[in-house]
Design the sequence.
């Protein structure tokens, strides 16, 4: 049995980045860049007006004749005398002869001429060519997360394809003779199988859209055979159930017989203690406890960071939140506790119903309060650190 | 022109919940419940062992004969004498004659009998029927957000279908003769169109997967005609570009001629001032500025909360984050400023490059620092409130 901090460390150390792939920028949200991107163009590609107004050459004059128009999309390089200006619109090309744009609000205009009421500074309202980025400058370093803004920036430079780390293919293997699919009739002694659909939803929050679910009977032979197939095809395997100490738990044995290397088994925590973590080549195997709330806890603590790490993300843990406790919290068992909690702008409340079988509490929680194994109690009003799970 | 706080209020007041639909629990992640859900079963449906161990009737005896086995999934209601116990596994049915389970770690066992070394309390390790939830008790109130845990809880009760608020159908209308699709050749005076792909990515972060993009020429007739069609089919319409004061901006006119009610036009903010917000029946229309960074700012401040509100979410704004400023911030213009910023565990840095055309800053920011119009300066070290945008 190892401590939680060590277990987290081992998971991180073994979560190797996925191979790279080319992907359309359109579909790249949530992926991580695997290459440094240089700008193929100057942005803006020409001197651009930042305002609707009039372009002219800055001087002591306040009156100018209007000799043309430049709309966004135009590229007529109108020749201007020092006494002349053109009507110009936001985003439009500024002719080479003009150096300044005056906002239309600061001008008295008739059809043929303007009188500038408030003279702007020289060069005002003209965006220099390449102001935002020059050709061949670095757009993004490798390992940048692709956000909506990053997609917009790549697109505005005309970039349509980038190289990113692939998302891991994930399989969920469900064991347990007691399990019945929701929607079917619940016979005596059976319960509905809910972990696979719950874990699939959890994976979706990290952008893993499709997860294959396999079901096997609760015996060594079936489990071993299924694992043999699955280990060939997937980058991350979640096994639900069958990992505690009972005689009827064959999962660990089936893993070892498939040459999966044990990296740890059992963590000094509550809930979620009976967890196995192993690897075979670069594939990671998490055998999670069958209890739904334990399973989901370990999903958030171990699996989600591993998924993010394999996707190339550098920030694989959610930013912690600090809040004041609304009640005392005791830890009498010397294990790390993960307590379902709900925080608001200032406080955090540890919820009733922390049993490892209970999902209802989890469904109303927005965070886990982590009480390390060496902390015996927190007191009401104390600031504590939370892991958000929303 | 109105203040930001008023604009936010108007958007909220007009963002009416979508109609409801039945949906498979499997696909319900991120949706909001439109009905109260009652449990169709007791959970657990029978008295369940919480441990691997032995079930017996609690007494002063420490020695028991083993007369059978109950595995998870079994339902053999073995008769037990006071001197008898059965081998039992986590999740398995506890026979009516037993009231207590002793963990196997606390027992010395041979094939036929056990000696309990550490006697548990009476009723220990037995989960009562209906402990988590009883039949007909409330599972979730209406308006609950469907998280992975909620999906797990619904599934474990055998629920496969729920009633939720629909997601809004969103269209993006792009105007601007200066725009060229990324991947095409960039002619002089033109720029690449990036707002639609950026806004689509932003909508994806709220679970709006498919967004139709329409493109029209920069004139009243085309814009009016396109809007007529789009207004019939969509719940939210984003218009990109064409809303500032220039003569060539036809969007507002096209909206009004299509009987869109103006709710506000122009907000006292920087960037993002030239924005129009209106409605026609329950459809919301946001005409966003053409500048990419302005467009994305207003997307986060106004559009995303409206989308969430229409989906039935009660928390439509991200939880604010409070951090210490690494530099002074001045607001000399009497407008609300939205400054691209990056925060870590303790501090926040306002980034260089706040121009409304610049997306590169946005791509490395993880938050917006909101400086209200009536605040003239924040000083280095001061705690300020941020809107996270990750």
Sequence:
């Amino acid at each position: 049995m190892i401590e939680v901090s060590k277990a987290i460390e081992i998971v991180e150390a073994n979560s190797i980045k996925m191979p790279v792939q080319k992907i359309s920028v359109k579909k790249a949200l949530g992926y991580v860049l695997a290459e440094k991107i240089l700008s193929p163009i100057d942005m803006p590609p020409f001197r651009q007006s930042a305002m609707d107004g009039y372009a002219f050459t800055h001087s002591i004059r306040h009156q100018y004749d209007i000799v043309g128009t430049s709309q966004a999309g135009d590229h007529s390089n109108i020749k201007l005398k020092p006494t002349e200006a053109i009507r110009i619109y936001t985003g439009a090309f500024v002719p080479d002869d003009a150096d300044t744009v005056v906002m239309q609000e600061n001008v008295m205009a008739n059809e043929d001429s303007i009188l500038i009421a408030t003279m702007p500074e020289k060069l005002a309202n003209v965006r220099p060519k390449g102001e935002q980025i020059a050709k061949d400058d670095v757009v993004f370093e490798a390992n940048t997360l692709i956000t909506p803004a990053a997609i917009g920036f790549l697109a505005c430079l005309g970039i349509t394809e980038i190289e990113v780390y692939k998302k891991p293919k994930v399989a969920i293997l469900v064991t347990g003779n007691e399990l019945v699919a929701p929607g079917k009739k619940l016979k005596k002694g059976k319960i509905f199988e809910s972990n696979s659909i719950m874990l699939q939803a959890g994976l979706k929050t990290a952008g893993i859209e499709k997860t294959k679910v396999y079901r096997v009977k609760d015996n060594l032979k079936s489990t071993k055979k299924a694992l043999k197939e699955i280990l060939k095809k997937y980058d991350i395997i979640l096994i639900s159930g069958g990992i505690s100490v009972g005689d009827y738990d064959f999962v660990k044995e089936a893993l070892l017989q498939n040459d999966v290397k044990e990296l740890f088994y059992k963590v000094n925590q509550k809930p979620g203690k009976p967890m196995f973590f192993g690897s075979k080549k670069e594939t990671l195997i998490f055998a999670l406890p069958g209890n739904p709330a334990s399973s989901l806890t370990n999903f958030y603590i171990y699996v989600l960071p591993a998924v993010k790490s394999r996707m190339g993300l550098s920030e694989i843990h959610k930013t912690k939140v600090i809040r004041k406790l609304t009640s005392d919290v005791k830890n009498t068992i010397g294990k790390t506790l993960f307590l379902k909690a709900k925080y608001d702008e200032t406080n955090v409340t540890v919820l009733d119903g922390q049993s490892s079988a209970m999902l209802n509490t989890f469904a109303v929680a927005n965070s886990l309060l982590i009480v390390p194994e060496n902390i015996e109690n927190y007191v009401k009003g104390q600031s504590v650190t939370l892991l958000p799970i929303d």
Chain B has four domains: 4-18+167-310, 20-42+133-165, 48-127, 321-388. The first strand of chain B starts at residue 20 and ends at 24. Chain B has a mean pLDDT of 94. DSSP finds seven helices and 28 strands in chain B.
